[in-house]
Batch of 3 targets.
Target 1
Amino acid sequence: MSTTAVQSARAVAKRLGWGLADQALSSLSNFGVGIMVARVVSPREFGVFAVAFSIYSVMVGVVRAIGTDALVVRFSAADSDATRDASRRAGGTALWTGAAVGGVLVLVGVVIGGDFRWLLIALGATMPGLLLQEAWRNIFFASAEGRKSFVNDAVWTVLLVPAFVIANEVSDASASSLTFAWGLSACVAACFGAVQARLLPDPRLALAWLRENRTLWPRFLAETVLFTGTQQVYLFAIGLVSGLVAVGQLKLVQIALGPVNVVSQGIGLVAVPEAVRAMHRGLRRLDAVAVAISVLVGGGALAWGLILGLAPAAVTSGLVGTSWLAASSLLLPLSLYQIANGLNTGAFVGLRAFKAARRSLAVRVFASLAQLAGALVGVAVDGARGAAYGLFAASVVYLSVWWSGYLTERSRFGANEGSDAPARRHSADASSVT
């Protein structure tokens, strides 16, 4: 391997490390917030806070779809001036969305009153900062500056401690006061992100950004809805067919397999930007990146599944509760399900690099329908265990569809083995792909 290749591999590994570290920090921070709130408020108040966090989580997916996803696929390999200009518009879209949604939340809070009044007002008032802070993560990784994203998340995490202490001292801790403290600290971190990036997001450019990327963001948004909604739908359907015990068993094993999601999301922060840069160096380089990503995520799922499977039942039950003894029979099929999902990650990332939003959405629709069919047929045959094996069977089917979609898009560019020009031409013209 040449010196240049070694240096390039080290640079990619370093960026991957920042992605994993940032996602681990973000996940631990969210976990810590949940624990801190749960310790100081009543169960009812914690439920109210959970509603606020759920609204925020939904809006994070929306802002990624309409704002920063297009930035990542179009500008990760662009020159710095173009990337900065696009970052200003994408960040402005996050601010604009946060202001619009935040205004609605405040208005609804004023109108409805009750337990949710001050919660919605607090969340709405800080929503612009919450969404901009999240946008900085993708902006920094698109610019190959993952370290800045980690630092920004660290700043938010550190600020949470005094913010929660002050909220508790100034008034009795409540879901609304803690939500405001959480959101306000995110606003400070968002302002710090502007200092790090040395640019100011411009919400006046949001509509122009949406028009410019109209062939991408509607399909990205539809994918986000399908991805986040499919699991909720099949869990609800399983509950109707087989009861809440089956749902609880599935959910418990999914929680136990949660660390795989941290790995997947951490790699995901880096994967699409790296795939876009690889495509600029040639399609064979993109192939290598896509395969490597699948191996990393799928291998991580395999490793964690083995750790859980080989751990003594007493240890696992001590971590997730005595319900594990009844749910543990689902570990094998759900681990295989996660492995298969990990193996399709590279194909998804490759389609993002090709800006093939239409094909990616079509595959996502197929995958969602396959999951629903597999879960429902499985639960009808053998309860929760059947649903788990049905999900695994579905994942094997759509794994091949994801990679077939990737190979089809690859062939569209007429690239022979080792020919780079088609990839470069395509990368330069985002509007050509619908």
Note: Residues 357-412 form the longest helix (56 residues).
Target 2
Amino acid sequence: LDVAYVQMEGAGRLRLPDGHVRTAQYAASNGRNFRSLSEILCERGLLPPERRSRREVRRFFRENPQLAAELLAENRRFVFFRLDDGPPLGALNRPLTPLVTVATDPSLLPLGSVLVLDAEIPGPPGQGMRRIRGPVLAQDVGAAIRGPRLDLYMGVGSAAEDAAERVKTQVSAYLLLSKNVTTAAR
């Protein structure tokens, strides 16, 4: 299941059998449309829509391992990776920065755009939500990121994964533009 999530995220940190940690960086995809595991489970009636979360998907597959191969195969999108020793990189080929990097739909918000974000995000475990206000940088994209949506990069590790799973909220985002937009757009 972890492999499916690395496929979905486009990058991930891998702990190898010898103990070394390497980064699987996005290299290419087969170009097929992405289908999330939670979407597949909900469509099949195996997961109620109100319980649609990464945690519930993991629970489902722990309890139903015999269905894993069949259901995982329904997402026909496949990502190819290259191994690297550095941090995860975004579509601008620059390191992702927790709470600064956002992934966007580049047809609506070009890569490299700077925004000011005002949002409530999950705090550390057991501490509820916290407000963040400040600049973010559109430096990544994703097959599932279409339309007026931002995905805030939360970092690596289980605490970041847990926080990212709980970020599902409307935000205020303000695009910063040059006074001379026509020159900046060239």
Note: DSSP finds six helices and eight strands in the chain.
Target 3
Amino acid sequence: MTTPWNNILHTALLGTDKQSLRAEELGEDLSPMAEQIVTSDKEEKFLQIAALAFNYRQAGFIPQHKESAQLSKPTPEDKPYCSPQAMQVLADVLEEENTALLALWLQLCRNSGQLARPEILPALLQRCITHKHLREDILTCGGQRARWLATLNPDWSMLPGSEDSAEQQWQTGTPEQRRDVLQQLHKSDPARALEWLQATWAQEDVNSKTDLLRSLSASPGPIDLPFLEGLSVDKSKKIREEATLLLKRIPASNLIRKYSEALQQRLKLKKERSLLGMLSKTALEIVPPADGQELSPILVQSGIEKLSNKKEYSDEEFICYQLMSYIPLDFYTSLWQKTPEEVVKLFNDDPLGKKLIPALVLSTVHFAEPKHAVPLMQFSSTFYLDLLPLLQPQQQEFYSNKFFATSPDAIIQYSTRRETEWGLELTESILRHASKDPYRYSKIFFNKIIALIPVGATAVLDKIQPDTLPAGASGNWPSISDAIRTLLLLKTQTIQAFNK
């Protein structure tokens, strides 16, 4: 049925030159008022009628009534709501649009066993769309009502616990949703995730397969081996390469076993006499395979190069270096019956070992092995920045302070990845260095890492005076310092709100 509003829309689409809007087309309520609009300009008359009809529609519009449209009620909450002080701080954090402080507020709220009040939940749920890492905490702090609200808005349908379940997202979601849900499921239930992936594998195209394989990279494990090793003969080169990358992440894979066998054939221990001939020591040597065979095609296809591209390494040394980069340090402790500390000392004290010890570091980082990061930091003569994230917070703090003067920017980069606050000594070093380079360490930088800066840093900021800074930095640092103080005040208020 044609309505006055539809007539207006139709005229707007066609243009007033092709169709004029007559007063009788507006219905008995609007026609008398439209006739009072006197102007010879067709566009002006149309716009005035449209404005009149719009306000009339807004004032008297009655939504369609459907008996079947029933809204369920949320499950009653079993946790207490936050204090008014905590809610005010949350409102301030949201207004500041600081994701780091929002994450801190949510963490403290979750740890306290409290809930955000209902009126703030829509604003929090909106943050879930662009900040995936906050979704679980927002739903936890939002309680039953947040999960109920998530079922009512399509934009929030990706949230865990909403009506659009993980399996529904896997079956009908966008490529990004399918990848995310597979990645999360693979962390919590790898067997089920693998079952889902194999069930749809034949229907996926090459790009989709590659993308889904990459979603397993956060948590590859032995349970994935039969599937991944079966992909080594896939007709797609992209699939084979992606599967190989994952197999290199799993110590129990046949590929890593072949790497270990190839290295064992080449890298040997030998006894050497000291200069006086009284004592002997253990040394490393590389012995080419006795049968003279080159690398197997499987190793070459996996990315191991036969010829060295580094002038300081011979071809055989370079082959060993590459193999070692993907072999866990446990291989040497088992083969040579030595502790991790003894293995690191052996490599560090040996001329050949010094050339190969960076490969041990690469392997330790590759397999994320904290237990081996410690001896590599303690007993090697070189400081390896890549090992810092694998250390305990106290150890990270110690080595960061120890080597800050020699590698300030690199240490700052790694320090921003920490999950615990910096100590005041490291904080002062970072702030002093940042104050001299305000273009690199701007307000945006500190907005992202404010959760890592202790609230006591305001005293450090007091020490950094503009007259002590280089000429190019003195004009910018005061405004950055003020922004840090504002964020630290919000952080202090957040902590205090949950300590009462």
Note: The chain has five domains: 4-60, 84-164, 167-247, 263-379, 392-499.
